[in-house]
């Protein structure tokens, strides 16, 4: 897994309301293909570690940093304030 430098630009994928495990796996597979550095999901998203989501993602969900934001608005503000 690659480390993100504190002063380096990074690409973060923000996803809200992804409830289909096929779509979740697809999201991670495409994120890896396009060089996304991390994925942030809201609480309404399904579990990206569900077996079918891992299979559809071709395992990329296991190698990409991701997090679930409990407070979506606060998380977005923090991202904006810290990383622009």
Helices and strands in order, then pairings?
Blueprint: E1 12-15, H1 21-33, E2 38-42, H2 51-56, H3 60-63, E3 66-69, H4 72-83
Parallel strand pairs: 1-2, 2-3
Any overview of this molecule?
By secondary structure, the protein is an alpha/beta fold. 42% of the residues lie in helices and 15% in strands. A three-stranded parallel beta sheet has the order 1-2-3, with no helix packed on it. Helix 1 links the parallel strand 1 and strand 2. The two termini are 24 Å apart. The model has no long low-confidence stretch (mean pLDDT 90).
Spans of at least 5 consecutive residues with low confidence: none
Tally of DSSP β-strands: 3
Shape: globular
Q: Could you tell me the strand content as a percent range?
A: 15-25%
How many distinct helices?
A: 4
Averaged pLDDT, please?
90
Write out the strand line-up for the largest beta sheet, numbering strands in chain order.
1-2-3
- The ordered H/E elements are EHEHHEH
Helix content: 40-55%
Structural class: alpha/beta
Terminal-residue CA separation: 24 Å
Major sheet size, sense and barrel closure? 3 strands, parallel
**Rounded to an integer, what's the Rg over CA atoms?**
13 Å
């Amino acid at each position: 897994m690659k480390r993100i430098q504190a002063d380096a630009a990074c690409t973060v994928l923000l996803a809200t309301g992804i409830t289909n495990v096929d779509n979740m796996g697809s999201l991670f597979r495409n994120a890896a293909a396009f060089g996304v550095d991390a994925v942030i999901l809201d609480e309404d998203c399904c579990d990206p570690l569900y077996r079918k989501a891992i299979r559809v993602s071709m395992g990329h969900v296991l190698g990409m940093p991701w997090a679930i934001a409990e407070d979506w608005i606060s998380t977005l503000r923090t991202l904006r304030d810290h990383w622009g």
